[in-house]
Design brief:
The protein is built from 3 helices and 3 strands; from the N terminus they run βααββα.
Length: 64
Amino acid sequence: MAAPTQPKRWASIQQTADYIGVTDRTIRQMIADGRICGYRNGRRVIRIDLNEVDASMTPFGGAA
């Protein structure tokens, strides 16, 4: 049996930027670089799954 997946936590670009403490321009660059995925709904609406943002974070330094 497959492991249950978490429900998607959709957020706008600005909400995602506020969530990780960066600018909306940084989020747009992260999408362009392929570090996170943006999902388009229509021509203008872009949403990001916050679970993917959490998964893309990698620890470094110290005891990591």
